[in-house]
């Protein structure tokens, strides 16, 4: 078994089924790799003992050919935003650096029930706030990709699910979970040459997922290919009475439909996504994506999403507003860190001052400002109204088309430390991903080529609510025709 590194979930599953490999062997293989690539800083917590136990159980199931789950024996990384029972869960923050939950998030529970094996908890931007994985209390994550013009330069993996993306790209695990509030699955997937799927809001339960902005947060998979994405999403989602926004819609058999093609599917191309700063390599790749889909029988239609340019400012009002409310619970009394003070007020102040990093503090200040009396109508309420307009734009567009093709990000992975001094420039990374988040729509990023420096580019496909299937079908065609998996070697 020379190249376990290149395995996808579906290939590993074959090997496990015909017993040419065991889950314990796979698990040990990835643990060795994790130890050899500590420099990437992908994991906050490694769970070797847990993984061995889980993989032994899977091997027993394969042996008995009984109760084999969709992810049986597959070693994965879990973004450290999902609470795992009795396993430290930090959200990338000092304030939770010793937090050990006594319950399991529904998404992780679903994955364990399908047989997945937990290798460890992956690094992330603090409370999932960021686009470069540079805001984590546990240090920044490094992208395994290198620019061929400067092979010494360390690049960001994107964020906030940067640890997950970098770990999958460096073959330290077969797949990993992410969470996406405004792009945190799609953008790092795009920067690391991977498939990142943010399903429809409500597809995955948010129970046990540490909250950032509750009306936007969604869990989803980061994988090496589209088929794996469909397998893992199917394993993650479920209706859950513990999350009142979780959906009762039937969950399709995603892996079955992935390869059905795009014949007759109408693909919308929005002019408004030709944003300032859109890199020319990325734009060229977008045009290629259009041609690939056309050549497979899709119909290309020009559409308009007129409020696109308001999406970013709207997001950066609503997300901090919700975050400021969600983060009020970290008061030094009930969770994690507590700093002492002479009275209760001082305990709060000292704890939050020392426990939160700068980006989180910035968001809390913006959030409390836009929610405060006198500014609420001007900012928060206005942003809610604009959110509705953005959502209406999509509904109108979907009268004419079945999905929308755009780039995932305006540029490719950049150097660690770049854009760090200017939060606004950092926020511009999300300009193409936040609209689908505000409208709660399913959106996938699929690797579609390399730029002049040899760095991955991703294309995004957005579809109607609960139509992840169309995202998968179109993404599969792009994956095949771009030949990305050959390009990367
Ligand atoms: N980069 C965006 C932000 O910083 C999105 C983060 C996310 O999706 N969690 O808010």
Q: In summary, what is this structure?
A:
The chain has helices spanning 9-17, 23-36, 48-64, 106-113, 162-169, 186-191, 226-236, 254-257, 280-295, 308-326, 344-355, 358-371, 376-400, 423-427, 434-438, 468-482, 484-487, and strands spanning 43-46, 75-79, 117-122, 175-180, 195-198, 218-223, 266-270, 299-303, 403-407, 443-450, 456-463. It is α/β, with parallel strands linked by helices and 489 residues long. The two termini are 19 Å apart.
Break the fold down into its secondary structure elements and pairings.
Layout lengths: L8 H9 L5 H14 L6 E4 L1 H17 L10 E5 L26 H8 L3 E6 L39 H8 L5 E6 L5 H6 L3 E4 L19 E6 L2 H11 L17 H4 L8 E5 L9 H16 L3 E5 L4 H19 L17 H12 L2 H14 L4 H25 L2 E5 L15 H5 L6 H5 L4 E8 L5 E8 L4 H15 L1 H4 L2
Parallel strand pairs: 2-3, 2-4, 7-8, 7-9
Antiparallel strand pairs: 1-3, 4-6, 5-6, 5-10, 9-11, 10-11
């Amino acid at each position: 078994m020379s190249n376990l590194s290149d395995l996808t979930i579906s290939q590993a599953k074959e090997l496990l089924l015909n017993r040419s490999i065991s889950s314990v062997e796979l698990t040990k293989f990835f643990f060795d790799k994790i130890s050899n690539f500590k420099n990437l800083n992908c994991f906050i917590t490694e769970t070797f003992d847990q993984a061995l136990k889980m993989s032994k159980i899977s091997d027993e199931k394969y042996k008995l050919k009984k109760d084999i789950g969709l992810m049986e024996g597959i070693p994965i990384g879990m973004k450290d935003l999902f609470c795992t029972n009795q396993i430290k869960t930090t959200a990338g923050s000092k304030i939770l650096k010793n937090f050990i939950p006594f319950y399991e998030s529904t998404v992780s529970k679903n994955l364990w029930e399908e047989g997945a094996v937990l290798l460890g908890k992956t690094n992330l931007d603090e409370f999932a706030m960021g686009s470069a994985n540079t805001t984590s209390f546990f240090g920044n994550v490094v992208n395994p990709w290198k620019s061929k013009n400067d092979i010494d330069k360390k690049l960001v993996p994107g964020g906030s699910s940067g640890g997950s993306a970098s770990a999958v790209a460096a073959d330290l695990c077969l797949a990993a979970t992410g969470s996406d509030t405004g792009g945190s699955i799609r953008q790092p997937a795009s920067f690391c040459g991977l498939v990142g799927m943010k399903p429809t809001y409500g597809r995955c339960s948010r129970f046990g997922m540490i909250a950032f902005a509750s009306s936007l947060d969604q869990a989803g998979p980061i994988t090496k290919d589209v088929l794996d994405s469909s397998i893992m999403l199917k394993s993650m989602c479920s209706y859950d009475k513990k999350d009142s926004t979780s959906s009762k819609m039937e969950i399709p058999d995603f892996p079955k439909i992935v390869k059905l093609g795009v014949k007759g599917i109408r693909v919308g191309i929005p002019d408004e996504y030709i944003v300032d700063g859109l890199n020319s390599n990325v734009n060229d790749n977008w045009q290629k994506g259009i041609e690939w889909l056309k050549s497979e029988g899709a119909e290309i239609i020009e559409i308009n999403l007129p409020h696109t340019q308001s999406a970013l400012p709207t997001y950066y009002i609503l997300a901090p507003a919700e975050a400021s409310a969600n983060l009020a619970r970290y008061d030094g009394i009930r969770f994690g860190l507590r700093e002492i003070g002479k009275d209760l007020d001082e305990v709060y102040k000292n704890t939050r001052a020392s426990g939160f990093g700068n980006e989180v503090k910035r968001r809390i200040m913006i959030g409390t400002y836009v929610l405060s009396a006198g500014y609420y109508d001007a900012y928060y309420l206005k942003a809610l109204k604009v959110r509705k307009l953005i959502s209406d734009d999509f509904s109108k567009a979907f009268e004419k088309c079945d999905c929308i093709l755009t780039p995932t990000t305006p540029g490719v992975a950049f150097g660690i430390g770049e854009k760090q001094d200017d939060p606004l420039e950092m926020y511009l990374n999300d300009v193409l991903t936040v609209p689908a988040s505000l409208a709660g729509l399913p959106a996938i990023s699929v690797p579609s080529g390399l730029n002049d420096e040899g760095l991955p580019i991703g294309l995004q496909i957005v579809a109607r609510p609960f139509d992840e299937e169309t995202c998968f079908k179109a993404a599969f065609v792009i994956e095949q025709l771009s030949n990305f998996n050959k390009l990367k070697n």
